[in-house]
Amino acid sequence: MAVVEDNAIPPEAPAPGVLGKDRFGMTSKRAAGTDERLASTGRLTQWLRRPEAGAAGGLIATVIIFALLPGASNLYSLQGSMTFLTLAAELGIIATAAALLIIAGEFDLSVGSMVGFAGVVIGLTVKYWGLPLWGGIACAFAVAILTGYVNGLIVVKTRLPSFIVTLASLYILRGLSIGITRAVTGRTQIPYILDGAPDPATAGLFNGHLLTGFFQWMGTQGWIATRTDGIPFVVGIPMSIVWWLGLTALAGYVLTQTKYGNWIFATGGDLNAARNVGVPVDRVKIALFIYTACAATLLATIQVMEAGSADTTRGLLKEFEAIIAAVIGGVLLTGGYGTVYGVLFGALIFGLVQMGIFYTGIDTDWFKVFLGIVILMAVLVNNYIRLKALGRGGGK
């Protein structure tokens, strides 16, 4: 008896694009061998279809734009590069956390205010309560965990839009920062936080440099610029950059290589379907709200260690910049799609534009206009590359 295999290829398959009949006599493209899901694609097309491909294209375009502008040659020197990388790192720390929350289908508009409030908590507990530096930082993270938990709990229990809930938190945290600080100190700043704090190791963890010996050696070899006393202008890699890259790598691993990452995508993709297959969507959302608040607190700690002071206005508008960096990076605002590596490119575009305007001598009064144009161009490049990769070019 002859055996017929289900997956055997018919000996007389119709030409591509012509509808054929399957073994049940049904007309279909699949039977005709034109199923687009089975079509082979090149490696370039596969890479261009990744969410971060558009952001990478936008970053390349931004680099070329500033390379062509007069006066921007120092932007790509070691000192200039380290400066815009530091700016990108400060935004990238909170943008990475914001991206994960957006992929899960929610927003957190309170991260900017959390930056200012966490700095105030560190300043008050260290300067006025006499806690050691690590104790003040621990208090700030405890407040962040509580804030993120409350935000998440309200969202999942009331089903209110997270946009509204965290918008209220934005004003509450900003108001608390100003009110408490002014009541205790009589002003809106807390200076000299690090003066007399016997905890240099903790400060170095957030405001130190990595590979200082290597940079010193490069200076002695004449490979990098040094001052008259032989110390390089760039003494090492700032810890903010190290924190940023470390968190991005960790978030990328969790999102793409773990079951928890699948839960995040499922929560933002189809909430009901995720619930039906057993995904703990409420727990995932609350955890991500806590993560965004802790990321804002990490940024606040870095800023306090760098400046030695806390200011209630710090973090202003950072919530919107974090969302913009995520969108530039290919994260869909509707949730369920995105990557943290694209957010890395988005943060780099922000840092590059900020420092590029300074180096090119453009009037800073036009900074936001120029920033908006570059962001728009980056998004358009992002969208164009994505549509071309998906075969939807031509405005259709």
Describe it:
The protein has about 400 residues and is mainly alpha-helical. Helices cover about 65% and strands about 5% of the residues. It contains 15 helices and 6 strands. The chain has helices spanning about 45-50, 55-70, 80-105, 110-125, 135-160, 160-185, 200-205, 210-220, 240-255, 260-270, 270-275, 280-305, 320-330, 340-360, 365-390, and strands at about 20, 25-30, 190, 210, 235-240, 310. The strands form 3 sheets. Strands 1-2 form a two-stranded antiparallel ribbon. A two-stranded antiparallel sheet has the order 3-6. α5 (about 135-160) packs antiparallel against α6 and α5 packs antiparallel against α12. The longest helix is centred in the C-terminal third of the chain and has 27 residues, at about 280-305. The protein starts with 19 loop residues before the first strand and ends in a 7-residue tail after the last helix. Mean pLDDT is about 85; it is low at about 1-30.
Oligomer status: single chain
Number of helices: 15
Query: Helix fraction?
Result: 55-70%
The global form is globular
Strand content: under 5%
Strand element count: 6
Largest sheet: 2 strands, antiparallel
Mean pLDDT reading: 83
Are there runs of 5+ residues with pLDDT below 50, and where?
1-32
The secondary structure category is mainly alpha
Taking all Cα atoms into account, the compactness measure Rg is 25 Å
Distance between the termini: 52 Å
Task: Please give a handful of descriptors for the protein shown.
396 residues; two-stranded antiparallel sheet; globular; disordered N terminus
